[in-house]
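User:
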Amino acid sequence: MIAKKNKILILLDGSEESEKSLDFIINSKILKFDQIVLFFILNPFNPVTKGQDKEVLYNDFVHDHGKRLATLYIEKIENFINSKDLGIEISHNIVNSKDNLQRRLSLGDIDLTTCSINVSNILDFIFNKSKVINYLMGTSTDILIFPSDCNFSLERKNNLILNFSESIRPKYFVDTHNILNIDKFSILYSKNDKNNIEKLLEDIDKNFQIEIFQNNKSNLKNIYNMNKDFNILRQDIRKKNSIFTSVIKSSKYNSLSNNTPLYFKTN
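Assistant: Predicted structure:
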């Protein structure tokens, strides 16, 4: 058991896509946690049953029926987690919409929110999935988003790639390592930041394995090639993208479409 109690929130809606969040978290060993909150968002059209082809009027019956199904679904998930005998504390919330997420996070006890996303193509990302990411970035916790078919190997170590900024302090690496099992940090920096990053390296705990690269396409490609024996994660900028910037600056899409999880950290 880790010294600090880490509580993570897993977004669920009954879909196979969201359920893969649980598989990834339990099986990848990427996260350090001992408490889970299963946060089920009810959909008016019952995502836990796929037999409805037509939209139905959202009334009390539909809501109550959906909540009963969600309760059974959560029960199944909790039994699955308990069967792993991991010593994890489990709690859950069943809510009507994603708008309840902000209220739940405002309690201040969640260390990280996580969900899985199926990215089929760039248009799907721009008009659908980017909205989910933008909404999550409006919350107050750290966020881990990963492709629904992401497959981390337990035989590999984990490498987090991040862009340098002057807001990064030595404590960043301690805090990140407290919640994620990161074996190596690869930092990309601009030419103008050379002196700043060298100063940062002097102050970072020498127990952390850190490599630095000037930020360009060639070096980014080299990082991936050099780290084929690592599971790769990217830390992305915690900034909402408009449709225009989602098209022009598609780093989030490129990462997710290449099966690379995205990590967003609060400053």
